[in-house]
Predict the 3D structure of the following.
Amino acid sequence: MQKTNIVILGAGYGGLITNKKIEKLLQAGEANITLINKHDYHYITTQLHKVGVGTACDRKIALSIPELIDSNKTKFVVGSVSNVDAQQQTVLLESGDEIPYDYLVISLGFEVATFGIPGIKEYAFELRSFRSSKAIHHQIIKQLSLYKEDGDPSRLTFAVAGGGFTGIEMLGELAEGLPKLCNEYGVPFDKVKIVGIEAADSLIPFFGEELISYTSKVMEKHRIEIFTSTKILSCTEDAIQLEGDMVLPCRTLIWSCGVKANSVLEKFGIPLVRGKVPVEKDLRVKGLENVFCIGDCALFMKDDQNALPPTAQVAMQQAEVCGENIVALMRHTNVKAFEYHHKGSVASIGDRTAVGKVGSFTMSGWFAAIMKRVIENRYLFVLGGPSLVLKQTLFLNREPI
Ligand code: FAD
Ligand code: NAD
């Protein structure tokens, strides 16, 4: 009898955890499992702001995928997915290779949303992947070096667009990491300007008065200039145009104004809603019996109006059920409906402080920062057990950056 082909697209939070779950439930040889990802490493998206500022060593954020999978059970393919043919049940790669599937998991993640604002795609920097975040680090170093040659103050203005979680994490990291970089490159830190720009009337507008006020105070303490109720209208290589006829001379704009699903989905011939793949309660794509979609690519409605947000927490919980459901279909048993259990959210503002909410309990300061580390370590534990947690936290912490 021919073995069942299970193909997983994307080795991010959703794809890797689905793979882990299936590896756990199936014996070696029970199915062909193929995991496909653009690169041979998995990046810890939740730490990309550290890559941007250069405050974490690369090996801490980019983990080798072959080391995270069981090669007796899973075949790992480095490749870029260019299309899916649901009729023929094949995945097409940019290399021209075609990979057949019996069960497919689409977990290709997110792209940064730029809303067609002029200049953003061309000149702004993104916290999207390991590489795009590395580009931020190179830009910072380049501007510090060039400032010493021409003294142009726009080189020392570092702006972050969007005061959601990504924005405040980036601002906090800049405030903590830039003094050290300035020192290394012989640039006086007091000449540096860190600016946060948010369209709504406060940072983290969805988080409640107490945490908003705490976050604002931390920003003030770090001398971060915050513009609220201010939309970015466009940007060029050396300036940002703001609402109210304001122009901010600046050569480094980090764009963190929200995300959308991977645009490769548009080619798959699956009808999209809000740019995402609508899924049933069991995480199967509407109208397709053997295709699952999870994480930032999936539109999972928690009620008539509201979809689940694009978070790692959602992707990981969905992955567990997706893995179980694929095995259930193989074994002709019942599939499960996915139920999301929100465990809370914590956002760091640098290494030593954070803000968070678990149920109605709000937290801030060092306690929240510790909680953030606990959450990160829990993910490492799920991914690679205690040895990965030890390696990442104890040994790699000692490596020079
Ligand atoms: P991803 O994790 O993005 O994985 C997608 C994978 O697919 C990637 O490996 C990518 O390389 C690969 N891929 C993409 N296109 C192709 C292609 N064409 N071919 C092959 N492979 C491809 N959420 C939280 O819950 N907590 C946090 O603290 C948190 N922090 C965040 C910080 C930042 C800066 C950002 C941007 C997001 C953060 N999020 C956080 C959100 C979280 O990262 C995402 O919701 C999560 O990564 C979604 O998981 P996913 O599996 O859908 O996609
Ligand atoms: P977001 O959508 O949460 O926030 C984007 C912010 O940008 C909004 O506050 C919006 O008002 C602002 N904005 C939009 N257009 C603008 C413009 N033209 N000018 C100025 N401001 C503008 O996006 P995000 O922060 O990138 O987060 C994306 C997802 O990742 C979310 O689901 C978030 O929860 C998740 N995330 C979680 C964490 C965490 O849990 N620690 C960290 C980062 C991201």
